[in-house]
Write a structure and sequence with these properties.
- With 387 residues, the chain is an alpha+beta fold.
- 50% of the residues lie in helices and 14% in strands.
- The protein has helices spanning 5-23, 27-33, 38-47, 65-75, 80-87, 95-100, 103-115, 133-136, 233-269, 281-309, 315-340, 353-359, 370-384, and strands spanning 120-123, 140-144, 147-158, 165-171, 182-188, 194-196, 210-221, 271-272, 275-276.
- A four-stranded antiparallel sheet has the order 2-3-7-6, with no helix packed on it.
- Helix 4 runs antiparallel to helix 10 and helix 11 runs antiparallel to helix 12.
- The chain is globular, with a radius of gyration of 21 Å.
């Protein structure tokens, strides 16, 4: 749902201008530094990127699901690090708080998250708990008077090295394996017993820090429980992920658009056998396949977003979005490297193709692997289909 078309057009225009004039000229700088420098983060704060999905009551833009998808498609047409820097504040790092937090928790954190003053992250995945979250969750939180004491390790947590606020999923019922035995906690950096590891050395996505979160006898007050009620953690996480999977599908589509644009320019300029390579039908076929798949992903994402804005159940739809868009982006990246030939393999010749090829590989892994989403889709189809 788009509430005001003129306002939305203005937001998209300003986002495109940031991508074109600020982000793209600084992509190599971000990669070399392996961080988004403070001057660029400040520009993102001033542009309001950190508050897109946070309600207006708390200082955000309160974008609808469709509006947020459109904005994410635009912002992700530059280095992945830019959208990742603000993405946890407009996605998984805040969504559970937005939908299930107490009013006091929202007042305490959401305005600062919306402004970009603080950065959030969602700490769910563990060394032995990823796809099998309920069965493998090992982090425990034990009630002790007016507090809980948490122990455990979280792994592959985006923005953990720079986060100020951690939403941590832990098991609060020893021995329980179901959703009712889990609870989310809001924990601030600096809390004794919480620490983060050094950023991982990754295949791609330079500038987007990822690390472990360590909880060693980390004592937090009971008012740190998200929503003020134990036993609701897994449900809160799934609410956040259902929306975030639409966001992520949009964030897969932006890089694909960028790569296709670069490929079209290259196909017009690069000459072989006395003519532009864009004149060769096999190159044309690859360009056409890229365009068709990008538009198919975009249509699926926007229709799913509209359904969510209407209040419909989109559990099946979001898995389809995430699966299709992430796989689509990988196929586009592969075709574009092929169109660039040897230059596409060399980052110093065909920037940003080599970098984007590495960056987008992660899309098929996080927030549910492609295989997990295939299983989810099949399970929901079989559950909902009757003879």
């Amino acid at each position: 749902m788009i509430r005001d078309q003129q306002s939305m057009d203005d937001l998209l225009r300003r986002t495109r201008a940031f991508v074109r004039d600020v982000a793209i000229p600084n992509e190599r700088r971000v990669e070399q530094l392996d961080e988004v420098p403070e001057d660029l983060v400040s520009a993102m704060r001033q542009a309001g990127f950190f508050g897109w999905s946070i309600p207006q009551t708390y200082g955000g833009a309160g974008l609808t699901t469709e509006e947020l998808a459109l904005a994410n498609i635009e912002l992700s047409q530059c280095s992945v690090a830019f959208r990742a820097r603000c993405g946890t504040n407009t996605g998984i790092g805040t969504e559970a708080l937005v939908v299930d937090g107490t009013e006091d928790q929202k007042q305490r954190y959401l305005p600062r998250l919306a402004s970009g003053e603080i950065t959030s992250c969602l700490a769910v995945t563990e060394p032995d708990a990823g796809s099998d979250l309920l069965g493998g969750l090992q982090t425990v939180a034990v009630a002790d008077g007016d507090s809980y004491v948490l122990n455990g390790v979280k792994r592959y947590i985006t923005n953990a090295p720079i986060a100020d606020l951690f939403t941590v999923l832990a098991r609060t019922e020893p021995g329980a394996r179901g959703a009712s035995g889990t609870t989310c906690f809001l924990i601030e950096r600096g809390t004794p017993g919480l620490s983060t590891g050094a950023p991982h050395r990754k295949m791609g996505q330079a500038g987007s820090p990822v690390s472990e979160v360590y909880l060693r006898d980390c004592r937090v007050p009971k008012d740190s429980v998200l929503g003020g009620k134990a036993g609701q953690g897994f449900r809160s996480v799934m609410k956040a992920l259902n929306k975030q999977r639409i966001n992520l599908a949009a964030l897969c589509t932006g890089p694909a658009i960028r790569m296709l644009d670069e490929a079209i320019v290259h196909a017009r300029k690069r000459r072989q056998f006395g003519q532009p390579i864009g004149e060769f039908q096999l190159v044309q076929a690859m360009l056409a396949d890229c365009k068709v798949e990008i538009e198919a992903a975009r249509a699926l994402i926007l229709e799913t977003a509209r359904k969510r804005d209407r209040g419909e159940d989109v559990t099946l739809d979001v898995s389809m979005c995430k699966l299709y868009a992430s796989e689509m982006c990988g196929r586009v990246a592969d075709r574009v490297v092929q169109i660039f030939g040897g230059a596409g393999y060399c980052g110093d010749i065909a920037d940003p193709i080599e970098r984007l090829y590495r960056d987008v590989r992660l899309f098929r892994l996080y927030e549910g692997t492609s295989q997990i989403h295939q299983l989810n889709i099949a399970k929901l189809l079989l559950r909902d289909t009757t003879d």
